[in-house]
Amino acid sequence: MQQLDELSSLIAQHTKGDGVFSTAIPRLWLIRQSKRTEPFQGVQHPALCIIAQGSKQVLLADELYEYGPARHLVASADLPITSQVVEASPEHPYLSMRLDLDLAALGAMMLEVAQPAPITVQKTCGKALCISKSDPALLEAALRLVRLLDAPDDIAFLAPLIEKELLYRLMRGDQADKLRRMLMPESRLVQVNRAIAWIRDNYDKPFSIDRVASEARMSTSSLHAHFREVTAMSPLQYQKQLRLQEARRLIMSEALDAATAAHRVGYDSPSQFSREYRRLFGAPPIQDVSRLKVVPATYAQAGA
Question: Which residues have CB under 8 Å from 214's CB, separation 6+?
Answer without folding.
Answer: none
